[in-house]
Amino acid sequence: MKFSLTTLGTASALPTVNRFPSAHVLNVHERLFLIDCGEGCQIQLRKYGFSFLKIQEIFISHVHGDHIFGIYGLLSTMSMLGRTAELFIYAPKVFKDILKSFLKHFGDGFKYKVTHIVINVKSPELLYETKSIEILAFPLNHRTDCFGFLFREKAPLRNVIKYMIEKHNLTLFEIARLKEGANVEREDGEILKNEELTYIPFVPRSFAYCSDTSPFTELPEYVKGVDLLYHEATFTEETKALAETTMHSTALQAAETALNAGAKKLVIGHFSSRYRDASVFLNEAQTIFRETCLAQEGREFEIPVLLTSGHNS
Amino acid sequence: MKFSLTTLGTASALPTVNRFPSAHVLNVHERLFLIDCGEGCQIQLRKYGFSFLKIQEIFISHVHGDHIFGIYGLLSTMSMLGRTAELFIYAPKVFKDILKSFLKHFGDGFKYKVTHIVINVKSPELLYETKSIEILAFPLNHRTDCFGFLFREKAPLRNVIKYMIEKHNLTLFEIARLKEGANVEREDGEILKNEELTYIPFVPRSFAYCSDTSPFTELPEYVKGVDLLYHEATFTEETKALAETTMHSTALQAAETALNAGAKKLVIGHFSSRYRDASVFLNEAQTIFRETCLAQEGREFEIPVLLTSGHNS
Question: Is residue B313, in this structure, part of any structural domain at all?
């Protein structure tokens, strides 16, 4: 029941010796979602022990080189490793032509299909779902079409309290209805209230990804209450003017978004290469949002599952 | 007067945690020639302290991903670093379309021109020269158009032995003629023989690059007598069948080419990811060619300048 983010790259446009370009892996119950794919992503995936086979979906926030130049190598390597499973790439419209050119020149011998699904939303919209998670895209505010992603674990089926099964002599049908959240009406007209007989086995978790963007009014609403917020912090308040002209955020602005959204934890990354030591970003963000962490190559941020206490637990 | 090769990547098609894809830098008198540009090349260039500004020419042996996927990031970074100097990329014909697509999507704001010069030779041909070096391309034998490169320092102007200047009371014109290698005829008909009055200040050095290729008859002739030969060694004799079907070489075959060419030193690289420990390649090659070295990320192979002993030195 894992739910964790691992950062593979914390650089912004210019990579440095220690900072790779943007790429992140979200592990949801051992299914891996790749978010952005900067140059060297495949090398980082190997370094930190992620199986390429577990990646079925890639989410590209926007088509700037530092978020996408690793896709060529990754797709080629997947082919050489014998991949046959279809791969879905969620990316802005302009990616279509890039993928076409890539497949034309380097796609010979690919035994798997690469499907591009265009992201084009004006407000949060469901992009994709499995039985355990739903993924929404929402617009960001950058120099090109750019989108954030919200990953939300779905509410699990409710558990029926064991001694209630015996007490009420529940049928299998009644148990199934209760698991789905419904009340149950007995033959004698008695109503068994769901909240008295069941509990949620765990609290659904959520993660939001915001890179690259300048701050804007609606953003905190889009990521309201997330357990973990990744937000770019390319600059600091000292270089705020640069953040404005390039449509990026400062560490303080990232923290403000986290604060206004009521996020539980903030991870900042996408650091400008002008800052050798990232602690300046951390200090700035923590002045208003204590629960800030620095992204770092290979660092994992796990959201532990919160089991609720059922009456029989 | 440096003349040295640094390997940035020793992997073949599949990079590993410790092996980056193919990329090499040849430093000729502090001018850097980049040879192949696999994914992560810009990160490796930084790591090993090479200035991007000193690169004016890139040589691409062939358009397979592991030799080219780093070019997108490198070109973008050069732009962000404010490059204005034209960049010349020597690459097979098919690169034209790839470059066009790249510049269309990522070339906005480039303040420098990227010029693709098509390599298309059937035998060794001069590709490029400066006042100190000439670079030839020659065909290799691979699954796609693929070329090797021969870098030859030009013969320097000859030095005139100091005491000969006094002895013969040489004029400036006569000295200039002697430096160029000519004999000098005096007014009285006497012939001053060049070899008696001059010497070469240093012995010109040479380097050849052969990746990717299966062995073929003409190759040793193409790289005859080079001081340093880089040759791919993707497989070993144990996996020779794979080398044949993929049109690569074994370490032994690389050594045979070095031996037949009379190369002074051999560097092997482009190792298959199936071999964790590269010493197996070294041992195999050294059975017939003692002066073999293993390429390694960041390892530099310098050819020291050999000063000749002039009579006045």
Answer: no
